Amino acid sequence: MTLKDLHPWREGALIDSTWIAASPGQGTPVHDPADGAQIAEVPSLGAEETKRAIAAAQAALGGWRARPAGERADILMRWYALMLEHQEALARILTGEQGKPLAEARGEILYAAGFLRWFAEEARRIDGEIIPAPRSTQRILVWQEPVGVTAAITPWNFPAAMVTRKVAPALAAGCTMILKPAPETPLTALALGALAEEAGVPAGVFNIVPGDAAAIGSALMDSPVVRKLSFTGSTPVGRMLYAQAAPTLKRLSLELGGNAPFIVFDDADLDAAVDGAMLGKFRNAGQTCVCVNRFLVQDAVHDQFVDRLRERIAKLVVGPGTDPGVTIGPLINERAVVKVDDHVADAVRRGGRLVAGGKRDHGLFYQPTLIADVPADAQIARDETFGPLAGIIRFHTEEEAIRLANDTEFGLAAYVYTRDIGRAMRVSGALEYGMVGLNEAAISTEVAPFGGIKASGMGREGSRHGIAEYLELKYVMMGGL
Ligand code: ADP
């Protein structure tokens, strides 16, 4: 069975419940990063179609927000059930365009579906407040209302989860949405759109517009109808969108780059630290925004940690995500491979000791790499690597670890391994990050508030805080009682 035969497969854009196909040769090709083969062609839309999608989302808003929350919740729950039913097909489409091992893709589909379930549940808990008023003849009511028409721009590293994490709270809150998926991975988003329709999401409530990023982005940002943007991607594009949002004063959620430190103290459970390191570094071939970028390891356990990580890295299996047993798939594109290669060369030039890997394999595959004795000013320590490269920096004291960890413009995720409860609390408190994994590397879950500070952005996704991003407060003062 080819990908095109899978049930939720779509190659068109979705505007107002109409699927728009690409004119052959005029669209954007989608490639399998494992072998470079073209697997689809999706429409390359621009400002004109984006304006149509905005108009459709605006027209659909009144009906959708007026629906009882329980009805919106039921539709999201049906969508959730359809994602589970089609988990295997969705995982195959995801691996086909993104490259991650199938086992990880299956996991991502479950994780992504979890946002639909969570926000379906939250939809019915959007309640208000009654505040004691200054006079006895008054009552103060606080209502929560949907912000209105919203937009989402998503990246290629989690083609399913980054979509549901935005669309689920939006729809639960009573908002409508226009999504621009990443050009590398539009197919998972389109498949989700097909399942949304099947679940009963009405026309215009969820629109998907693939194509020219700058043109679609500007049309969304210039429109006074669009009241909010949720963006996950790079910090430079996030900064630009922030500026573009100023004239219409849109609300923003920005989930941008990270530079996650992974601190191993000499009192840590080393088995747990090594397990956490493998997961935190090599998941999705190192291409997640919460992936470890810098290992900071205390003197006394440094050599042992490096040895154990080397042994585990030797067991990783590089290959196409569809091959059984593969744990490291291809990187997303040539630019990504070149960046990892540059970071390796830079670290070695500055005195880093290459312990494993260090070279590109064939195509877009890169050998899982370990470099010890990395100086703190190396590129890997400053700049998001987004690849299967672990660089180890040695430190001596707790103060030094905190200083090194915070010495970055980013502030998304940090990881700390220690068995000393006092140190655990001190260091978690001192880290300038939105999220801390304490003796734990798996921090992403729909039930917790995911997000960063500083150059890693603003706003939170997941948990009850995630739906607040799509709600406005309205205060009603009743007088003359
Ligand atoms: P990456 O370099 O990892 O692809 P980007 O920030 O460039 O990260 O991409 C994340 C998302 O932002 C993608 O959907 C991409 O198409 C989109 N994007 C890139 N440039 C712009 C832009 N000028 N306006 C709006 N969206 C953009």
Automatic annotation (TrEMBL):
It comes from the Bacteria. CDD domains: ALDH_F5_SSADH_GabD. GO terms for biological process: gamma-aminobutyric acid catabolic process. The active site is at E255. The keyword Disulfide bond does not apply. It is an enzyme of class 1 (oxidoreductase). One of its GO terms (cellular component) is cytosol. GO terms for molecular function: succinate-semialdehyde dehydrogenase (NAD+) activity. Belongs to the aldehyde dehydrogenase family. This is Succinate semialdehyde dehydrogenase. The lineage of its organism: Bacteria, Pseudomonadati, Pseudomonadota, Alphaproteobacteria, Sphingomonadales.
